[in-house]
Hints:
About 60% of the residues lie in helices and about 10% in strands. By secondary structure, the chain is an alpha+beta fold. The protein starts with a strand and ends with a helix.
Amino acid sequence: MSKRIDNGDSNSELPVSNAEIELQPQKHSTVLARSRQKARRGTNKYLRTPWWRLPPLGYILTFPLVGLALLIPFGFRQLDIYQPFLDTPLVLVTLIIALVWGTEPAVLSILIGTMAFDIYFLTGKFQLFQGWNQSLPLIPFVLAQIIMVVLAAQRERGRRSIEAAQKELKSYAGQLEWVNRQLEDANKLKDQFLSMASHELKTPITTIRGQAQLGMLRLKKQAELPPELEPVRAALERIEQHTYRLNSLVDDLLDLSILSSGKIKLRATRCDLGEVCREVIDEQQTLSGRTIALELSPSPVLVQADCERIGQVLTNLVSNAVKYSAENSIIQVGVSQTRGKAIVQVHNEGAPIPEELQANLFEPFYRTPAAQSSSKKGWGLGLAISKQIVERHGGRIRVESSQGKGTTFTIELPPGAEKTTKPIEEAQASK
Length: 431
């Protein structure tokens, strides 16, 4: 059995089989595990010590390097050149060995250099430990090398600390990359599930609602309804009401899924925001019986946008204002234009929304604690869908709410909004 997922385009659907959906989590897990292993291999490669810096190689090269350092004072002696610092080449060799191969080869260099210097330049034979008075000339030579080895050891310790920190950061970066990919794949699966579930639910809900409406229509045609059919009529009305709510939820889920995936196509036309607001207000006044005031600018406010989607946003905002404000209060809708931007504001005198909760209002399925505890029904999808639609037009939506001033939702649409109404796939392909 296979199912088809609508991607927002009426001419293209994606066939997806049940077996493929069941295998997708396994495929994602395999790919993510390979990505994590690759990141770890990269980290180990980055921190691996080069072969030419290994201490065993330093032990081996210490002997020829000390021998090369001895050639310099030998040359001075053969040329009868006076040089008061004959031990300088040996000190430099010890420093190089300490910096490249570490402390242990450097200690070996000190021992070999000290013995060679004693034999060839001081006494002519090795008698370092036969008398302290003969060893005095070597003390500055040995101390200088020991100090340099200690400094080199501290430098090496600092370098290793930095490498350990880099290793930890690299490991965290790899883990974060893996987690981000996992979250992205989970989000794609979530969108796919929402789209499939919405499509699968829409058909039976529509059928149930149609049957309920048909039953109510037949009962209304009867001149006098028998008492035994009165419970049937009430049950059919409840079925029609609940299926209407379910159908609205399915439509919102489909809109949210399509908008989140970026595959929606906005049909940009020349749109008069004043006329759109007037149509929405007339509809909401008819449904609720509330007073809704409309304030328009002297000149028409025209934008290049999808009028149907902008009307959907305004319907969400006005219906929320009706739902969460007092029955005798007036809802105000204003349309204006400032600095080339089209502004639409919807204001109500309902209970204020705490500032710390305002940032969460545009998250899917979010409802404030006051809304959850009230008798007003809702799913917390309207504002999330409105935000997606406005941002697809290149605009933004915000809320301001405080005690004594009520709540105001503001929509800003920039000039030239038609440039941003292409679907994401087309925008990426044109780059």
